[in-house]
Amino acid sequence: xxxxxxxxxxxxxETTYTINVPETLPLLEGTTNHSPTCVIDHCNTCRRTSGxxxxxxxxxxxPWITIISHPKEGEDSxxxxxxxxxxxxxxxxxxxxxxxxxxxxDRWAKISGIEEKVHLVDATIGSLDxxxxxxxxxxxxxxxxxxxxxxxxxxxxxxSEDGKESFGGLRKHDAGGW
Length: 178
Ligand SMILES: [Zn+2]
Fold this sequence. Notes:
Blueprint: E1 4-9, E2 15-21, E3 37-41, H1 44-50, E4 55-61, E5 65-69, E6 79-85, E7 88-93, E8 99-109, E9 118-124, H2 130-133, H3 136-139, E10 143-145, H4 152-159, H5 161-167, E11 171-172
Parallel strand pairs: 3-10, 10-11
Antiparallel strand pairs: 1-2, 2-5, 3-4, 4-9, 6-7, 7-8, 8-9
The protein binds zinc ion (ZN).
C-alpha cells in the first residue's frame, strides 16, 4: 500500500533522511498513540542541546527511517553522535550544527502490523523540509513531555488563550510517559 514519505536534513545538506510512513498509521501498543508520535519535549537536555526553549520530535519506528550522508569527496560523514545521558545518543551535523536525531538504546515498542518489537528513533521536526512540514496530520505535535522541566513563561504561552487555540490544547505530561 502506498504511504507517504517525509523528507528532512541538516541545514548544509550533508545529512538527509527520509521517513516512510505507511498509509495506515499503526497503533503503539499499550498506548492510545498512533505512530508517528510528535511531541514538544521540555526536558533540560533538549533545551540545552537545541539552544532553544525545547526540542520538537517526530518519533518513528527505526525501520521507517533512512539516513543518508553526502560527504564531500575524500571526507567522512559529518554526522556526530554523542551520549547525552546513559544509553542515549543524540546526533547533529558536525559541519552546520543542526540537531537531527535522538536514540535511546532500550526504547523498544510494539506497533500494530509489525511482528517484532521495533526500536524507536526521534528526528527533529524542525529539520523536516517545508513540503513535509505541510503534512500537518503527521508532523504536528500532540503533546508536551517533561513539562515539569519547562520554562514557566514558555508554558504560559502555550496555556494562553491564543496558544490553546493554535495548538489545540495539547496533552500535558510532567515527565516522558506517553
Ligand atoms: Zn549540515
